[in-house]
Amino acid sequence: MQTEVSDTRIAHKKFGLFYPSVSRPSIFIEGEDRKTFLQGIASQDILKQDEKSLSYSFFLNPKARILFDAWCGNFEDKIGLFPPADTREEFINHLKKYLFFRTKAKITDMSEHFREIRLVGPETISVLLSLFDNNFSGSSFRMLKNGGYVLIHPTSFQHNLDVGLQADLFIPIDQFETTQKSLEDFTSKKGGVLLSESSYLTYLTEKGIPLFPSELNDSFFPAEAGLDSVGVSYNKGCYVGQEPVTRLKFQGHLNRSLAGFSLEGAAFPKMEFPVTLFNPKDGNEAGILTRTSFSDILGSGIGLGYLKRNFSENGTELLLPDAQLVRVHSLPFV
């Protein structure tokens, strides 16, 4: 097995491989009502999603705050849902709340049958080419020769920013070691890297990508995370949380939004998140910090969080609770 690295430079220039300790759940919805069932609870327009395609969606509470985000893969006879890791039981229970007696849809949990591998970086597709099942000609959602599948994320994500290529591979358990060896041989030959958990999170932070549950939770709207353009349909019918989402889009304004922060030349201190950020001029709250990392590329501590509108200009100085100075930084960092 290759040695994990802490530096993300090669991943940004070529590609990086990451093995999460906990895989995303693999939940499948089958039956003739599968699409109409999800249409009433997901923020994306499931009815208009093409076969063999991937979409990104939110599952909201009635006040339109984020409960889960999930990737939705449209198979020929079922829909695969891939919510965040460690949410399997909670996510299935949420689905069951809306699965009424007469609904012809069935929830099947296949999480134990797959293990996940993640790829990031500009050469992601070249890594995947030898693994694709060419009889399944999807674009963002592809089957693999070993019976697994891959979710290829959109390169335009939060605030429509270019975050580069990413892919999640779901490998059948009995094929995992073979696929792992093949990927690591390719990585060694082509000069990619194996990322540790901390370096993978640093990579995502450098790209400014909001994550569940640090930035995506029931304190925030999708639009505040800059994800409504990729994860919300404003043209579909009713679903849980639709009314507040639509009202915010067409009649309201955002009081806060996702932002980046930097601590020049130093790592952020250990803190319990979220951390309040203060306006140095009057001591009033300016926003919150939700996660941090240290970027070797920038030689600085970096972080994500949410800022009130008046403080969003790049370079604005704010204070941590210990009075250390941080600056607002445009996204992505790298």
TrEMBL record:
Pfam families: GCV_T (PF01571), GCV_T_C (PF08669)
Keyword Transit peptide carried by entry: yes
Keyword annotations from UniProtKB, A to Z: Transit peptide
InterPro entries named in the record: GcvT/YgfZ_C, GcvT_C, GCVT_N, TrmE/GcvT-like, YgfZ/GCV_T_CS, YgfZ/GcvT
Record GO biological process: iron-sulfur cluster assembly
Keyword Transit peptide in record: yes
Lineage: superkingdom: Bacteria
Domain Aminomethyltransferase C-terminal: 256-320
Domain GCVT N-terminal intervals: 27-229
Protein name, per record: Folate-dependent protein
Organism: Leptospirillum ferriphilum
